């Protein structure tokens, strides 16, 4: 079925995001499950990557890997992945440093530290990409057996 609410272009990314966020419960938590991990950014696997790779894969499988649609989805995916790995990772590192500086400086004690937004490591991105490909293939297989 093309288009509509069951469109693989919406369904695959949604399922990829939900599964990636669910998996973070088990990869990030120690011995206890922390529900906060369901919506926290960063961690294993990268939900950002899973979403954009599942979209690009669904487009490629449906429209063709030589189509302009696939090219656009792939460029979009590469930009999001680059941002998740590099820009957000560096911002997270800076946030942790600012928090440490605030805690160690006498005059700044009690100052609210910035929210730390974690980026992704290469392994987290690769896991998200694999998850995205698998989810898109599964969704398309179920919709078009």
Residues in helices, as a percent range? 55-70%
Sheet with the most strands, sense and barrel status: none
What integer value in Å does the Rg equal? 18 Å
Helical/strand content category: mainly alpha
In DSSP terms, counting alpha (H) and pi (I) runs of 4 or more, how many helices? 4
**Uncertain spans, ≥5 residues at pLDDT below 50?**
none
What is the global morphology?
elongated
Let me know the average pLDDT: 83
Number of strands: 0
* Termini gap: 12 Å
Task: Describe this protein with a few key phrases.
0% strand, elongated, single chain, mainly alpha
Please tell me about this protein's structure:
The chain contains 4 helices and no strands. By secondary structure, it is mostly helical. It has a domain at 8-78 and 122-143. The longest helix is centred in the middle third of the chain and has 37 residues, at 68-104. The termini are close together.
């Amino acid at each position: 079925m093309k288009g509509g609410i069951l469109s693989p272009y919406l369904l695959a990314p949604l399922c990829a995001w939900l599964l990636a966020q669910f998996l973070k419960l088990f990869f990030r938590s120690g011995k206890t499950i922390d529900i906060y991990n369901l919506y926290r950014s960063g961690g294993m696997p990268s939900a950002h990557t899973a979403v954009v790779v599942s979209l690009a894969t669904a487009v490629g499988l449906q429209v063709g890997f030589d189509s302009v649609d696939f090219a656009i989805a792939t460029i979009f995916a590469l930009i999001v992945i680059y941002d998740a790995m590099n820009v957000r990772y560096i911002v997270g590192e800076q946030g942790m440093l600012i928090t440490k500086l605030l805690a160690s400086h006498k005059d700044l004690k009690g100052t609210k530290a910035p929210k730390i937004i974690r980026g992704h490591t290469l392994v987290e991105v690769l896991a998200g990409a694999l998850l995205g490909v698998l989810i898109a293939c599964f969704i398309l297989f179920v919709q078009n057996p």
